[in-house]
Amino acid sequence: MRPTLLINGRIWQWSQAALAGPKAMLAAADEGTAHTMAEWMLLEHGRIASVGAGAPPEAGEADTIDLGGRLVLPGLIDAQQLVESAAKLATLPITLAS
């Protein structure tokens, strides 16, 4: 399988602040620091090998795909919905049934 280099995109990345746990993720979402955006992503063997902003790495034998500014959500279906759902769940009272 040849590597694939995705360029010219808006690639969602969780920030380090948001990866410290659910409370940290909600706090980072409130502060607007839950994610950053990369511009390119290198895929090797069907997995993300590296991501970054600025000039992409030398493509070599990789297939290059120009994303044309499109949004990429690696591993996410709808980030906004997931964050909103987590925030709503965190505020619900817990009731134990006997």
How would you concisely characterize the structure shown here?
With 98 residues, this protein is α/β, with parallel strands linked by helices.
Helix and strand topology:
Layout: E1 4-7, E2 10-14, H1 22-31, E3 35-38, E4 40-44, E5 47-52, E6 63-66, E7 71-72, H2 79-91
Parallel strand pairs: 1-6, 2-7
Antiparallel strand pairs: 1-4, 2-3, 4-5
Describe this structure in words.
With 98 residues, this protein is an alpha/beta fold. It is built from two helices and seven strands. A four-stranded mixed β-sheet has the order 5-4-1-6, with no helix packed on it. A three-stranded mixed β-sheet has the order 3-2-7, with no helix packed on it. The longest helix is centred in the C-terminal third of the chain and has 13 residues, at 79-91. The N and C termini lie far apart (55 Å).
Task: Considering the chains and any ligands shown, give keywords for the structure.
98 residues; alpha/beta; 4-stranded mixed beta sheet; 3-stranded mixed beta sheet; 2 helices
The low-pLDDT segments are none
Q: Report the sheet with the most strands, covering strand number, pairing sense and barrel closure.
A: 4 strands, mixed
**Spatial order of the strands forming the largest sheet:** 5-4-1-6
How much helix, percentage-wise, in residues? Answer: 10-25%
Return Rg in Å: 17 Å
